[in-house]
């Protein structure tokens, strides 16, 4: 087999060009620091790097959602803290209103103070979140969630909360109805109150406290009446379960603690013959603004007796404490969400770092290996170039000339 000089030259040039291209590719990889410049360089590695890049994008999007949630929850927690401080001022005002020496005008002045604090609370309940929404709008609304109508404050939002995030769910709002309108009434188990005298129809001369639970197992969630008959020292009481008809009765004296079916209540003042007190099951529909409105109305009512003032004040403080407790529970939930955000942020940081390492392992160049390969290719190219130079001199014309 004979090879012409032209074929030898062409083969040598092709080899030189191939080695030069490989050397240029290696140089490009060294410059970029990437082992994979195109998917065709390593389809499997490119797919692996693409999956890692997608995971990094998800984490970064989730981080933005987390930051938005943290901002909203921080503002909500601050708002609930502000509300708690105002409610404490209202409570102190109600305690002062129970002073028997206060006149009706003085109590009306306290009512005006509570009314002003109520307006501040309404402003907090409608506090914006800084991005076009409201902190307590529930599932979102472009309008303030609480409306002050002639019949009282009404929640106009949607119960629940707005959540975001593609890996975890992060809350952007707080359920306004839960925070401001779903406190547990009474002492949490039952609600006590005074009714009109069954004989005269006038307000009771005695008052009943909030009561307490003696035995949770005996609680029935039924309705009860406590009727006072006669006058001291021959007065008696009749404790009746109006749902089942069960009755308990005995001698009564003011300040006495009465217990029946797992409950204990104290009736004070100077109860008259026919005074009636009632007990109802507690419910989760205590509205904070309704409590304040009732307290203001009571304080502005004139010509009330001492027992009536005491009873109204006890009820107002009891309900206010329940509403404050509910707000504090919601604030605790918001704080727990903020703690969870810290944990989620740590997990996302770890996931992002892992994805970055995975991407780097898939597409980044091992610089030591890359430099070694480049030097080997450069040496091979130099050798091929010298070989071509020698082949180029192997010509018949050179022999003829010699």
Describe this structure in a few short sentences.
This is Flagellar hook-associated protein FlgL. The protein has 402 residues and is an alpha+beta fold.
Topology of this protein?
Elements: H1 5-32, H2 43-97, H3 104-125, E1 146-149, E2 152-155, E3 163-164, E4 170-171, H4 176-181, E5 190-195, E6 206-208, E7 212-213, E8 224-229, E9 236-241, E10 247-251, E11 257-260, E12 263-269, E13 276-281, H5 288-300, H6 306-363, H7 367-393, H8 396-401
Verbal overview:
The protein has 402 residues and is α+β, with helices and mostly antiparallel strands. The protein folds into 2 domains: 232 residues, f41 fragment of flagellin, N-terminal domain; 93 residues, no CATH class. 53% of the residues lie in helices and 14% in strands. It contains 8 helices and 13 strands. The strands form 4 sheets. Strands 5-13-8-9-10 form a 5-stranded antiparallel β-sheet, with no helix packed on it. Strands 6, 7, 11 and 12 form a 4-stranded antiparallel β-sheet that branches. A hairpin with a 5-residue loop joins β3 and β4. α1 packs antiparallel against α7, α2 packs antiparallel against α3 and α2 packs antiparallel against α6. The chain is rod-shaped. The chain starts with a helix and ends with a helix.
Which features does this protein show?
rod-shaped; four-stranded antiparallel sheet; 8 helices; 2 domains; 402 residues; f41 fragment of flagellin, N-terminal domain; alpha+beta; 14% strand
CATH homology superfamily name of the largest domain? f41 fragment of flagellin, N-terminal domain
CATH class of the largest domain: Mainly Alpha
Largest sheet: 5 strands, antiparallel
- Structural category is alpha+beta
How far apart, in Å, are the first and last alpha carbons?
A: 27 Å
Q: How large a portion of the residues is in β-strands, by DSSP E?
A: 5-15%
Shape, per Cα inertia axes: rod-shaped
Task: Give, in spatial order, the strands making up the sheet with the most strands.
Answer: 5-13-8-9-10
Tally the helices: what do you get?
A: 8
- Element order, helices and strands? HHHEEEEHEEEEEEEEEHHHH
Mean pLDDT over the full residue set: 85
Number of strands: 13
InterPro entries: Flagell_FlgL, Flagellin, Flagellin_C, Flagellin_N, FlgK_D2-like
GO cellular component, one term: extracellular region
Subcellular location: Bacterial flagellum; Secreted
Family: Belongs to the bacterial flagellin family.
């Amino acid at each position: 087999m004979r090879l012409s000089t032209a074929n030898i030259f062409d083969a040598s040039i092709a080899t030189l060009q191939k080695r030069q291209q490989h050397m240029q590719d290696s140089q490009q990889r060294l410059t970029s620091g990437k082992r994979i410049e195109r998917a065709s360089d390593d389809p499997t590695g490119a797919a692996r790097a693409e999956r890692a890049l997608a995971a990094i994008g998800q984490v970064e999007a989730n981080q933005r959602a987390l930051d938005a949630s943290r901002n909203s929850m921080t503002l909500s927690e601050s708002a609930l803290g502000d509300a708690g401080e105002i409610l404490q001022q209202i409570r102190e005002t109600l305690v002062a209103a129970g002073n028997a020496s206060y006149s009706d005008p003085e109590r009306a002045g306290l009512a005006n103070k509570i009314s002003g604090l109520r307006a501040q609370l309404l402003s907090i309940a409608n506090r914006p979140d800084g991005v076009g929404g409201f902190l307590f709008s529930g599932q979102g609304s472009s309008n303030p969630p609480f409306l002050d109508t002639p019949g009282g404050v009404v929640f106009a939002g949607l119960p629940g909360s707005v959540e975001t995030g593609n890996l975890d769910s992060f809350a952007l709002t707080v359920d306004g109805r839960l925070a401001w309108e779903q406190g547990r009434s009474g002492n949490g188990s039952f609600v006590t109150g005074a009714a009109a005298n069954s004989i005269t129809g006038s307000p009771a001369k005695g008052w009943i406290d909030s009561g307490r639970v003696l035995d949770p197992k005996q609680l029935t969630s039924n309705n009860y009446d406590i009727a006072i008959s006669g006058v001291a020292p021959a007065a008696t009481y009749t404790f009746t379960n109006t749902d089942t008809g069960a009755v308990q009765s005995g001698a009564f004296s003011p300040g006495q603690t009465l217990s029946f079916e797992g409950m204990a209540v104290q009736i004070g003042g100077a109860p008259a013959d026919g005074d009636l007190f009632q007990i109802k099951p507690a419910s989760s529909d205590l509205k904070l603004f309704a409590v304040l409105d009732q307290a203001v109305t009571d304080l502005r009512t004139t010509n009330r007796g001492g027992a009536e003032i005491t009873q109204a004040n006890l009820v107002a403080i009891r309900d206010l404490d329940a509403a404050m407790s509910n707000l504090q529970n919601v604030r605790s939930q918001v704080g727990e969400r903020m703690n969870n955000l810290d944990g989620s942020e740590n997990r996302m940081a770890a996931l992002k770092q892992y994805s970055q390492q995975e991407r780097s392992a898939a597409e980044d160049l091992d610089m030591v290996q890359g430099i070694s390969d480049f030097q080997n290719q450069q040496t091979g190219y130099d050798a091929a170039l010298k070989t071509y130079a020698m082949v180029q001199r192997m010509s018949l014309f050179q022999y003829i000339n010699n």
